[in-house]
Amino acid sequence: MSKSKVITSREEDYSQWYIDIVKKAGLADNSAVRGCMVIKPKGFALWEKIQGQLDKMFKDTGHVNAYFPLFIPKSFLSREAEHVEGFAKECAVVTHHRLMNAPDGSGVVVDPKAKLEEELIVRPTSETIIWHTYKDWINSYRDLPLLINQWANVVRWEMRTRLFLRTAEFLWQEGHTAHATKEEAIAEARQMQEVYATFAEEYMAMPVIRGAKTANERFAGAEDTLTIEALMQDGKALQAGTSHFLGQNFARAFDVKFLNENNKEELVWATSWGVSTRLIGGLIMTHSDDSGLVIPPKLAPTQVVIVPIPKPSPEIGEVADKVIAALKAKGVSVKFDLDLKKRPGFKFAQYEMEGVPVRIGIGKRDLEKGVVEVARRDTKEKTSIPVDGVAEHVVQLLEDIQNNLFQTALDFRAKHTTSVDNFDDFKAVLKQDTPGFVSAHWDGTAETELKIKELTKATIRCIPNDNEQEAGECVLTGKPSKERVLFAKAY
Amino acid sequence: MSKSKVITSREEDYSQWYIDIVKKAGLADNSAVRGCMVIKPKGFALWEKIQGQLDKMFKDTGHVNAYFPLFIPKSFLSREAEHVEGFAKECAVVTHHRLMNAPDGSGVVVDPKAKLEEELIVRPTSETIIWHTYKDWINSYRDLPLLINQWANVVRWEMRTRLFLRTAEFLWQEGHTAHATKEEAIAEARQMQEVYATFAEEYMAMPVIRGAKTANERFAGAEDTLTIEALMQDGKALQAGTSHFLGQNFARAFDVKFLNENNKEELVWATSWGVSTRLIGGLIMTHSDDSGLVIPPKLAPTQVVIVPIPKPSPEIGEVADKVIAALKAKGVSVKFDLDLKKRPGFKFAQYEMEGVPVRIGIGKRDLEKGVVEVARRDTKEKTSIPVDGVAEHVVQLLEDIQNNLFQTALDFRAKHTTSVDNFDDFKAVLKQDTPGFVSAHWDGTAETELKIKELTKATIRCIPNDNEQEAGECVLTGKPSKERVLFAKAY
After folding, report:
1. Helix H segments across B179-262?
2. What is the CATH number of domain A302-399?
């Protein structure tokens, strides 16, 4: 970053604010390939933190990683009727396997002789290739459950893309499990929803509603789609992760059967679940402000930065070394900025932009008083702390910041969740600048759901888990309803 | 694995032995997609160990990770003349972005209306898309060096594939660095060759020759290709990793210039370097035997397995728990096999097949004597060890195994490296069952190199670093030569 230009404020233009943060915090860029992004080092470092923690949580719940092919034979997609409707529409199709020099010397062209017998699809999701493989791996109940996860890139040819939130290629993990019983598969899908929710809340400091999708919003091929839904600062919802109970649909499509303990053949039960680099978009939009990115401490690649004021000196270096050693001993990641070419004020703005949770300024005058200045990124509060107590103070401060970010987001969501009982109120809430979640009765039909979407752009984000059963009347049709569901405009 | 069938011996059929190990140790399988493999959980766990250590070594040498698009616009490949010759030949070409229902209801077909304006190539390597991006990132000497690595999948449409060694899609890392000076770029390429060599020798226990490729064997677009070459048990060489000094070729092709300290514009200097899942093939063929896989302890996902004999009991459990706690405290990964459905003999064979470095058998009789049986996978030696000293013994044993595997491979290479001074001897060595490396004089011409390949199938694996300068005569043409080079048949 050569010159720090102030970013667009949220109030001025929320979309532009988001893009400004992604670009100016050095997280990602558009690429030469339509809809595909370049994840820059600072963005990828965030993804590595997310990956590392999720991978640990997957392994702690008994899963192992594997890797399946990038390509899916075209015919595989057609095997599951709903799946093909959902994913064949916009995908990258490989038709040839060779280029040749153009006869006119203008470059290279596709070699027409190298046409594939069957086209290959770049995976938009891997159920089909994986269940084709599972057929070879599963014979008996002894082979079950199979609890496998894959970290991979996938491609969906989206027409309107936005960095991290919706890109043609994105990085994700996809879990694909196989079970002997329906109950076990349902329990697995619920467990993974809870793993995602725990990760979102405890690490991303992003509160989420755990719920189920309506039939209309389900994954193509699923019998039940569980979701975690977060609320962004513009009052729009973000689907942050989904976990699907797939029933026996893919086992049936790929003929995957097992011999049960009574030596009888049965179809296998399945789940799949995934989160993606979209989480980075959610993290940005949950916590960041008009000064730039705000990263919750548990996911910050650099948790603390030390800035010498106005520039490095032996005295400052001595104190910094002590603080660094004490912080590292407590497992805190810390960077000491020794760049001589930039002034402290510039550095302060830069680290604010990049979202480093805690900044320690060490200056000559402060040192004479035996203190350093500790600034927290979330509230921007600054405190003078005695040199000896800095490490302990910072460890506590990181915890406070993590909790404060979560609590602030939780309060925001509470403030922007409205219960309504008639359609005028429903529309009025959704017309506000920050509409948020709207809790309302719905008659349970896809028809009403689509009509409401058409009229208000709001969709049913989920039917919350453990939803209170409460008799009422559909907000649109007045037909009877047994529980409220959560509506919102969404990303 | 339901029944353990003995694998083919190396003597009987080396290629089949290799495939048997890959499949029966559960490392990988062929897939429904031509030339693409499925990396199974046990194979992927090995890759995770390899990744983890390499990633640490890359970061320790100042590199950061990023992620660039899977797709490369076709025209990018043509920008660097040699590069396109090397990589346009066999690649996966995306021509369309949509499928549609077949008019005859037979499934899905490519939608002819969704033809891309410019075809996209699935990356066979990422120099072109990355240097296109670097143009935006590099303006001044202050932006240099850029030290970036990417973990990714790549696709090269190979005609003859073999699990791990050569597959159409494979996983790898590719480092792409940008520098202000030629000297710095050369130093970077050498540093990464040394990182690879250190990893191969200290972690994989696989001795390698560090050297440079001849012009003929260079990476397409490189000015110098450094390599590490290992020797497999069948006497064939394996190129295990390469590091390229790319000169200013890609900077020129993508117009990447920087302002130097004197405010003058210059082209940027480049390197790239990569290792892939091929390393797993090298690891297998360096150490494994006719009982199965042998994994060096430093890369073993499970370093120690404890087998109760004949089955679990409270007494055995008590001792096992103590041993497990002591081993874990020393950072050793350990598995306690409580499976009641399999007998000890079956388990022993299974863990031998899977290459677990150390097996501890705990039986009632041994416990009466206060000992357990410790077996090492490499030599299959078994020792009775007093319960109290097991953890310490095992830690030392793991180190011994690591060293023994390296030394055995080093001895093997020494035994199968032959210096020859005439072409009859040259041919005779290469006709042996286990030909190995042949050190011979060469006149320095591509013509002679190709002629020797045609006559013997041997290629120049490398000109070793710090090669002794020794006048001689080319083994084929008798023309003067100033140093020996290493020939071998190769994978």
Report:
1. 182-202, 249-253
2. 3.40.50.800
